Amino acid sequence: xxxxxxxxxxxxxxxxxxxxxxxxxxxxxxxxxxxxxxxxxxxxxxxxxxxxxxxxxxxxxxxxxxxxxxxxxxxxxxxxxxxxxxxxxxxxxxxxxxxxxxxxxxxxxxxxxxxxxxxxxxxxxxxxxxxxxxxxxxxxxxxxxxxxxxxxxxxxxxxxxxxxxxxxxxxxxxxxxxxxxxxxxxxxxxxxxxxxxxxxxxxxxx
Length: 206
Ligand SMILES: Cc1cc2nc3c(=O)[nH]c(=O)nc-3n(C[C@H](O)[C@H](O)[C@H](O)COP(=O)(O)OP(=O)(O)OC[C@H]3O[C@@H](n4cnc5c(N)ncnc54)[C@H](O)[C@@H]3O)c2cc1C
Hints:
With about 210 residues, the protein is an alpha+beta fold. The protein has a domain at about 5-60 and about 140-195. The chain has helices spanning about 10-15, 65-70, 110-125, 180-195; strands spanning about 25-30, 35-40, 45-50, 140-145, 150-155, 160, 175. The two termini are about 30 Å apart. Flavin-adenine dinucleotide (FAD) binds next to helix 3 and strand 4.
């Protein structure tokens, strides 16, 4: 249901509440929008046909072709970097940030936000001839909207370690909360436009 166990109980409550049917390991192979029909292939290669009212499709994640085709990528096509320093494993003057890397964090803007200051610091250190390296811990955040007004704010680092920004008395991240909704709906747009995009990052040292 979700890669980090701590968040599964809250999500399963909503699966039951909405009486949703979970179908894992099914690959969407074809869609006919006019007849609202989708075809799925299971692990054994069997194809099934399903009618839909609303289809929300998330394509498989992949790096851009120019990275995949380059010497910078690993066998799977992702930018091959050290998971902590985010320095290319092949070229000392190349660094990575964001979804393109082969790091095992959740590919989120929240992760890129933590990665950018690490890379900036490491480039400054490299230019100064220092071998000291700041380290990225794998932080990523998935605001899981479970109902209008409530979000499960999943925050975790490498190894699925739960790493909440707020203390649990303020926001219990493994549960659906109104505060997480408020954060996502009312605070994050300003943080994104006026903070992140303008290079203001007060969490850089945390
Ligand atoms: C539906 C959805 C919801 C999400 N919700 C959240 C959320 O709530 N919180 C969160 O933290 N994250 C969320 N994310 C994830 C977040 O959007 C990504 O992690 C983030 O955008 C990654 O940033 P990036 O700069 O690494 O990559 P991108 O944003 O993908 O930027 C890469 C850019 O490179 C450009 N590009 C590609 N090839 C070339 C080329 N050859 N030449 C020039 N330019 C090129 C692309 O056009 C693109 O603009 C969500 C993602 C999706 C799809």
